[in-house]
Amino acid sequence: MNLILISSLFTIVFSGNIEQTVLRGIPTSLLPKYTLAKTFLCLDGSSTIPFEFVNDDYCDCRDGSDEPGTSACPNGRFFCENKGYIGTIIPSHFVGDGVCDCCDGTDEYETKIVCNNTCFELAQKTRAEREARRALHAAGVAKKLEIISKSVLIKSDREARLRELEEGLQKVEDELKGKEELKQQAEAPENEAKDKHQKLWEEQRAVREAIARDNQMHEMFAELDANNDSLVSIEELQKHTELDSDHENEFTVEEVRLILGADSVNFDEFNVTVFDQISNSYKKLSEQSSETPVDHADVAATTEAQLDQIQAEADEETSAGEDEYEHEEEQHDITTPVATSLEHEKHIHDDTVPEYDDETKKLIQLADHARNEYNEVEGRVQDIKRQIDDLKRQSDVDTGPHGEYSAFIDQCYDYEEREYTYRICMFKDAKQISKGGGSDVTIGYWEGWTGPENNKYLKMKYANGATCWNGPARSLTVTFQCGTEHKPIDVREPTRCEYSMIFETPSACDERIATATMHQEHEEF
Amino acid sequence: MSRFFHLLNLIFILYILNIPPSENVDRNNFKTCEQSAFCRRQRKYKPDISPYEVDLRSMKTIQSGHLQFILHNTLKSPIKFQLDIFTLEHNSLRVKINERNPIRKRYEVEHALVGEPKLVDVKLTNLDGKQVEGSFGKSAKFLLNAKPFRLDLFTNGIFVMSVNSKNMFNFEHYRTKPGTNESTGENNTEDNEDGMWEETFKTHQDSKPYGPSSIGVDVNFLNFENVYGIPEHADAFSLRSTHDTDPYRLFNLDIFEYDIQNPMALYGSVPYMLAHNEHATVGFFWLNAAEGWIDVNNDKLTVQGFFSTIASFFSTKPTADKNEVPQVSTHWMFESGIFDGFFFLGPTPRDIFKQYSVITGSVPLPPLWAIAYHQCRWNYNDEDDVRSVLNGFEKNVIPLDVIWLDIEHTHGKRYFTWDTQKFPNPEKLQDDIARYGRKLVTISDPHIKKDDAYQVYADAKALGYFVKTKDGADYEGSCWPGASMWLDYFNPDIFQWYSQRYSLENYKGSTGNLFIWNDMNEPSVFNGPEVTFPKDIIHYGGWEDRDVHNLYGMLQHMSTFQGLFNRSNGHIRPFILTRSFFAGSQRTAAVWTGDNAAQWSYLKIATPMLLSLSVTGFGFSGADVGGFFSNPDAKLLVRWYQAAAFQPFYREHAHIDTARREPWLFGPDNTRLIRKAIEQRYNYLPYWYTLFYKQEKQGIPPMLPLWANFPKDKNVFKTEDLFMVGNGLLVCPITEADTNQVSIYFPGENTIWYDTRTLIQYNGSETVLINVDMESIPVFQQGGVIIPKRLRRRRSSMLALHDPITLVVALDRNHEAKGELYMDDGYTYDYKHKRQMIYRRFIFRNNELHSKTLDFTGKFETDAWIERILIFGYPKNPKKVIINSGDKQAIPLHHYHAESQMLTIRRPGPLVASDWTLTIT
Hints:
The structure holds two protein chains of two kinds. Chain A is of the alpha+beta class.
């Protein structure tokens, strides 16, 4: 008691700057707790203080409840009555700081600045904003409901279609089985004929190669046998230094003998022991000295003539019953002169398989037909399966509890900015497309809905995009807000490589806002 | 904010090679002493006997306090030097040595000094024709020895400094190039050493048309073991011996991702060194703006020969057996200019701060908001982004005074312009920011984009305002905007013209609530040698960059200051932050330690770096909270906020590639911890502001090494993990991730220290293990000091201007305490011109607390009142407390907490501006 008296005395002496307005800043609902009494119980119950301490510009309660009307407590709460508008609670540290925070200016009761009462204007403005907002949400909700009902239809359509497709698939798969049998039946004789053709060709080719070897050998032997004694001697071979395996030193008699296996060899011996040893390295003497250039044209002519002959012989060997087929021009159209027998041999290897005979062709035709029919049916199977997968994928996408976001399925949207176009393909990926050329950068792949627990569909995230140099993988967070159309309205990069997009869509409009009546708002004012 | 284009190249290369980028600076981009020809020459100059002699007969008294002598190099007799000795007020001495008849005038630094130093009389005694002794000031004395030249300095009769006692004085006079027509017979091979007439570093050639011109000198601190200063280096506070490293380098450079714990040059240069021991604090300042290198060596001086004759002058008797005293010998080398040395003879730390500030000026009282909290980022992208950050502070109830815009706010790095897509309405934005008393700072770098459509460029180009190459063309280099040019602020017309770019008329979109950040002003030139100007480019007056390099950044921010000053017709205090600086920069700009990194080691090094800046005049300095490069984890960020809350310039800043790190992005608990740290800063603002006022008046920086307050406590001469704010707070930043305990040595004898959180008392001269948690870093209030605080919460400092004050009275062993409080309007010069200020002294003695004015002319009107008095260390619950003011009396309530010995006086009530006495019985 004594203390209170003294405190009051002091207030009289020193205050001057502080007007005792005990009930300042207290919301109407709390007024009963501040009834004039001897003591005041801090609202958190932490302590009891003399009632004179309420709003005496000194903080006594831990919860700041003794100073709702002053800035003394760091955690106090000041009630702006705001007649004509809504009563609001502001932190009490806004009181007396020279900034008008309440529209009625009551937070600045003791400062020199004059706060205009803006509550009426504010109420009007707020009302207009609310109405605009409500109208926007109403318009949006109408579209959203369309989307939802469409979504239901789409969903049942999708399910019906799925059933249809699955039934269809069964039928087509059965059909495919039939076609497969037909295909196999047609392919058996085809393969047989083809094999036969191939075998014949291989035999022909073996003969050709043997002839070529023989020709070459004869030619070589004749050339080596300089003295025409039907023997190739050491001396004769020794001239061919290109055959010396250790090119550095002389091509010695011993080395030559090693090749010949004797002092001289006749044609048969040459055939058996020598030819294969030297055929790859061998060069004509005339080629080794440039003085006697080879007449390429002659060689070519000769070779061509020989080949024709061989072919003719081969043709005779084939069954007389088979139709002769014309030699295809390119097979013999030797455009570059054949310089040596070796190259000639290569030419033979390059030969391609000759055309099939008519019988085989007919079989192939039949088989092709069966195959095409099979493939066509198989294509249909795959197509149906893909459609089923697509439909299943679509029904797996989380488009909201009522399918609010179903309109996004398979849709892409662009946002144009100074340097880039940002393209978001919903439930798939997002890209940054440079306007100055350069490749697109994927800034994220669909990850999921990431809104807060009570509003999961407020945000979606695309993650694991292209990695920034020395940084994280790019990502995009999309925040939805109510609008009458689907469109991105802003893209930013608040932190390097972490993009954020604001996207307007009717899907984010709120029925509760749309249906809030003016009457209800009036009550709040 | 630095970042240079080499990075872009590097990024590309590293990208290809898939090599992670190095954490460290590429040292190959910067010279070693060995790669700097003059440093190489001077560092090896160690003759047994100095060839320099003073001709004492030549002595002339130019005026009282100014003596002039002729100095010879006996090996090069025709060359004469002039030695001028000026005895200055405040126990200071200036010595100039210049060529008497140089073939080319040597550069003498302009702009750094606050004015012409005032001379005082000197009493001369000519000792036997070999020496001249001069006594001046309170207790200062010099002794000039003639043969060889040597200068000894004494304070209070104690021998403290000696110049050329190691014979390293070596003055390279200007000469003609050997082999040219004008060359005289004097030339010999020694004039044609490698690097004298040209020098190549990497691909850059320095043409050196004037040949060698460097000066070296040894300055030795006798009987000292610790020297400090010569910022800027990311190194220890007590400078380390450079015996096994390069010398400390002074050359303003943009070092990308600078390393710590080394003597490499950084963004600013202050050629000023202090030495301290338990007997004296002294300082040596060589006014020279060229490239400099300084060797530091802790060695012993053998007291024999000459020194034995003055042995009695040593503060400590040489040990009987060895005749040795410790000394710190330093070797200073500058590439050009003259010798212009200032010797500050203390003898106390306070004297030293005063003496240096008398010569180069002190930090003027900043606007109150400038010492509050700043939020910066490269970049806040657009107006919406700025607004959403501001809203974040509101929503999370965190006070904020300043928000910043880095280079991306401009139209293609054309300063004085806006990217109008992102900032369509900058005036409106600034008005909105100003609603809560807040300010906007925009960046304005010195490189001017080469673009004829850019008005600033086109005008400057037409006027011939750009720095020139040696051949007279406009020098072109590369920086943020690509091809750029640089204004030649050395020309007074250009200085003036640039300052006018800041007028509201010229700087479209600026308002009176916009202030300036000058970055990249070393200057940073991406394709220049060592990322700066070539040394042979030409500034106003024909001076090469070689002569004036370290002044460039200062001239830019001085001109900026002039611009902001003129913008309000000298009514409103400007605020400028600069990265580059020189001695004298403190008069017009705050500095920060540039592009640090989000690592614990950079948080740790911030303290010694800021202490080095503080003791050399830069009391308004800070380090980027959180670290500029890369991402701090929550713990590091919280610890950084806690430490920086007690460092003078308090700004969060981050590189463009980092994740967002606004205070509320690390979860509710970390938000709470960061809020708490920032609020602590705001709580102590009345104290900080008072300290800044004292700094303007007395040159005492607010952030101090422990020895500044406890000069006789030998245990704290190397301390760099603790620091003090004024003489009241001892602060221990926590610089390791998992710290549960720290060992703290409490300085002083018979002192008491109160843990500001727990009120636990600790005794001076004791080392104690203190428990640490994440709530705060350990901060202790010294018994005997009264600290004014504001405990109310506000959205910004300017909104709290007239809020009531809480006095925290921490009693010493005699139950006494004192403190001060300074207040004014927080932003104008009315405190100077109209005495719109309050300066109070509080004294607690004999159970009475008195409030008296320290400045009777002060008349700032405020209804701020004393809301609460907390008395720490009060022994018992008093019966009664009475407060008297004039003829009024009141009996406020009090509450005593016995366990913590804290007495709370509730609502004592007097206006801050009034005299009053509180009596406790």
